[in-house]
Design a protein that fits this description.
Largest sheet: 5 strands, parallel
Order of helices and strands: EHEHEHEHEH
Strand content: 15-25%
Helix content: 40-55%
Strand order of the largest sheet: 2-1-3-4-5
CATH architecture: 3-Layer(aba) Sandwich
Number of domains: 1
Radius of gyration: 13 Å
């Protein structure tokens, strides 16, 4: 079973994504900020991380830097899912190593399709 880590501090988004991905057969882990996400990364080694940018304590940009800088996480794909929708924000996310960048509001169906495609690569 493929593992996904959802990192977001908005409970409604977390709950809807957790439900949608579990329905698709994924094993889902949840983190509320970057520091919690990194603990789960160490323990579970998810195949893909859905990562918000704006979170308390450790934001998404700092989190992806740690993920991409750790050889143990080399195979993990990362999708940013953020309300930060300016071109500069998207460019920054992609330049830090994100595979894709979705802006909020978003289509759950399109996000699931993107995850399926990235995990198959």
């Amino acid at each position: 079973m493929k593992k996904i880590l959802i990192v977001d501090d908005e409970p409604n988004i977390v709950m809807s994504l957790e439900y949608a991905f579990q329905k698709q057969g994924y094993h889902v882990f949840i983190a509320r900020d970057g520091s919690e996400a990194l603990i789960i990364m160490e323990r579970e080694h998810p195949d893909l991380v859905i990562l918000d940018v704006m979170m308390p304590q450790v934001d998404g940009y700092e989190t992806i830097k740690v993920i991409k800088g750790n050889p143990a996480f080399a195979k993990a794909r990362v999708i940013f899912l953020s309300a930060k929708s300016k071109a500069a924000d998207i460019e920054k996310g992609l330049s830090l190593g994100a595979d894709q960048y979705f802006t909020k509001p978003f289509s759950v169906k399109k996000l699931i399709t993107a995850v399926d495609q990235l995990i198959r690569i």
